[in-house]
Structure formats: structure tokens, C-alpha cells
Amino acid sequence: MKGRKSGKTKKYIYIVDFEAFAKLAHNVIIIHIKNIIRIQKCVTFNQVKGIFGFGDSDVIDKIGFPAAQAVPAISSTFPFIFGNKKVHCLVPCAIDQDPYFRMTRDVSPRMAYPKCALIHSSFFPALQGAKSKMSAITLTLYIRLLAHMYGGEALIMMDKLAEARPHFEPTFVSTLNSFDFETKDWYLKSLDAAQNVVRYNLAVALNLKGDFEVAKSLLNTCIHPIVASKVFALKVYIDKTQAAAAASLVTSRI
What we know:
One of its GO terms (molecular function) is tryptophan-tRNA ligase activity. The chain is an alpha/beta fold. 50% of the residues lie in helices and 11% in strands.
């Protein structure tokens, strides 16, 4: 969540970061709940039925949720930032979130706060194609494996080796099935190949961390042709690094 001045009028707007909002302290959550109740008092059941399509059989929690979604667009939710100022809110969101904040715009004047403004975006397309939006539930196992590998490599580049290592545990590929290896553009054609690639990447992380013996032991299990040249090169690098370290130690003792 961040605040900034808007144009020549010097009015303040703020952009809501819901993930950061969820991590706020206990006293802020109390204010959050109070504003939820205030919004709920301004919206009737008939209104939420018309906006969201709720029916008589829907549970109370579902009916009350729109107020919780709307409350970050009211600046008094963040008194530690804005004090008593009534500040305009800018909400970047996907188009499916529009009903929540249209409701908020109707409620805000009744609470004596300015209406929020929206920036709409389209859905993130799914990795399987643009016919549906992205969802972790629908990701195939091979995409999950690639995500772990890319995530681990990114963490290595940021020198976060301890965080990178779990992404390269071979157990991530234990449940791959034959369909995953028939997927278009997936160059690993067997479970053994996938396991070897993951083990090699884990050895790289261990090498960078300085765990040379563990890395070498792991490299000895990487026998698939797909990683053969890389395994050989990394073994040579580790041997030379260890030899240089040993020579340096001998020199320092002399």
C-alpha cells in the first residue's frame, strides 16, 4: 500500500495492496472490522442479491463478504497513514472485481468518504491457453516442476541458497505421469530425465553454498545423457576449487 500526491490539485490517492494489508497489526484489524460493520449497515440484502446474484440459501458469511472486500477502499481503515484525512482510493483490479467496488462507490458518500476509482485489467490467461484465467488448481505437474526449477534458479541468482534448495528436491517429480512427458515443447521425455535435471540443479545450489562433497555425491547419481556434459563440467569445477583451497591452506601454513 502506498500513498502519493495526484496532479496539480495535490489531492492524495492511495493504491491498495491487499497482501500487505493482510499482514497489518492487531489494532488495525480492529479498525478494519469496524469499517466492515459500517459498510454492512449501508447495504441491504436485496442490494447484494441484485449485485452478486446471491440467493436465499446462501450462507451469512458469503453475503457479508462484499463488505470485507470493500473496506480497504475507505481511507479511515488506515488511520496510522492518513490520520483523519478523507482520501481518494485508486483500486487496480481484474474486471471480475468490479461489482465489489461499484457497491463501495455507492456506499462511500453515505459514510462521508470520497468514491474510489478503479483501473480494470483483463484476466491473466492460463498457461494452457487464453480460454480460461490462470489458476493453481489447473496447473499440470510438469508446469509445477518448471515453476519450482525457475523459482529455485532465481533464488540462487539472488544469493538465497537456503531458500533455493527446497525447490530442487527430487520428490517434486515423483508423481509425474506419462502424459506429462508427451506434452508439447516439454523436452524431458522420461521420469528419469526429469529427476536427473532436478538433482543436477540441486547440486549446483549445494556447490554455490560450499557443500562440495554433498554436491559431488549428488552428481554421481546424475547419469542421464541430458545432463551428462553439465555434470562433467561441474565436477571439474568442484575439483579445481577444492584443489585451489587446499593449496591456499598449505601456503598459509608455510
